[in-house]
Amino acid sequence: MESSILKKIIKGIPKAELHLHIEGSFEPELMFEIANRNAIALDYDSIESLKKAYKFNNLQEFLDIYYIGAQVLLHEQDFYDLTWAYLQKVHSENVVHVEIFFDPQTHTDRGVPFEVVINGIHKALENAEEKLNMSYKLIMSYLRHLSEEAAFETLEASLPFKHWIDGVGLDSSELGNPPSKFINVFKASADHGYKLVAHAGEEGPSDYIWEALDLLKVVRLDHGNRCLEDDALVQRLLDENIPLTLCPLSNLELKVIQKMEDHPVAKMLEKGILATIHSDDPAYFGGYMNENYYQTAKALDLDKNQLQQMAMNAFEASWLSAEAKEKHISQVKNYFNSLSI
Ligand code: HPA
Ligand SMILES: [Zn+2]
Question: What does the record give as the active site (predicted)?
């Protein structure tokens, strides 16, 4: 398909974003602005020199910079501005529903109270619902390089805000920090009514995906790229209709794949896996939702049906009510039916 036509089609698709770390949407311009107003010196003297540092050989090299960037966030207004900037951006890309992660420990470990973080994020989400007609869910992620005990403290701190939080996730350095490290805190989180997801099989082996399913009992997997190495695992994902939230540009930037042509999403769709694509940390990986769709479609030569399937899968995989899912899925169908090509 011709590039400009493909871009136009993608832009018009009603989309859901299910894998987005709000701290990973922190654009350098806003980072400098907030650093200045909080009188915090960044290690980089300009936006350009900061952007030059965005070259990663693996997940850890990215995380090291991502945690540094988040250090300038101190006040409720900072978290509000960060979240509102993201929501406005994706609204302009026709994203109509978001389920976003935040990493409380990245902030509470620096002395920023849990309520400061969540109040700012929540206010921006409410504003988007009211002013942009967007729907949302919020997912609190435990940092897996820290202990399970620390995750329990975070769970405790979240309880007064339970009504604003839909689920818990597991992110940060995957290798050496298997899902099995967090069995108890996931069980306790479920007992408090949180839905469960986890990053698994991004850099870690397919064993970690089994653990996320069997030990943590997640209802959705973040990334899960490496499931294709294991036929029995693919069968399990199919039998239970477990969604995978894939992030193609992230995978490319973190060298999970060497080139976009190697991305597994087309194979997954072909097998009938509920695969969806998202942006992960768009300020660091060179693109938001539309760019992820575009780069993937171009490299894998995806056709209209595959694009439609990915867009419908995202709503199917979301935590919206059955009625809302149905509404969005028919909008996607109507949109594709209305295209003249
Ligand atoms: O892609 C990711 N993987 C693991 N942890 C993360 N935290 C932010 N982004 C990521
Ligand atoms: Zn992620």
Answer: 202
Rg (CA), the chain: 19
Is the pLDDT at 340 greater than 90, yes or no?
Answer: no
Does the annotation count 202 as an active-site position? yes
What is the C-alpha separation between 293 and 297, in angstroms, rounded? 6
Residue 262 annotated as part of some ligand binding site: no
Closest CA to 304 of 272, 332, 262, 275: 332
Nearest to 171 by CA among 17, 320, 23, 319: 23
Enter the ipTM. 0.95
DSSP state letter for 259: S
* CATH label of the domain that carries residue 89: 3.20.20.140
Query: Ligand 1 pocket: which residues have CB below 6 Å?
Result: 21, 24, 59, 66, 171-172, 199, 202, 250, 280-281
pTM assigned to the model: 0.98
CB atoms < 10 A from the CB of 325, how many?
18
318, 267, 311: which is closest to 292 by C-alpha? Answer: 311
Position 341 scores a pLDDT of 67
Chain centre to alpha carbon of residue 1:
28
How many domains in the chain? 1
Domain that holds residue 216: 3-338
Over the stretch 25-52, which tens digit does the pLDDT of each residue have? 999 999 999 999 999 999 898 999 999 9
Residue 230 reports pLDDT greater than 70: yes
